[in-house]
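Final report, Chapter 2: Outcomes

The project's central promise was a pipeline that accepts a single protein chain and returns its three-dimensional structure in a standardized token representation, suitable for archiving and comparison. That pipeline is now operational. To close this chapter, we reproduce one record exactly as it appears in the project archive, with the input sequence first and the structure output second.
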Amino acid sequence: MKHRKKSDLPSKVCPVCGLKFSWRKKWERNWDSVTYCSERCRRNKTTNKAGPK
């Protein structure tokens, strides 16, 4: 069994929040299509054009 350090895993940057996130076992089959770090960022992927109130 291979064990890797977390620092050796591939990572990406979330386009919504800018957070750097690492590969997870649950994303093993579709890592190439993972874009957002969380469900919250995926839901908020569109920017608010009106700006903050």
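Archive annotation: Residues 10-43 form one domain.
This record, like all others produced under the grant, will remain available to the consortium after the project formally closes.
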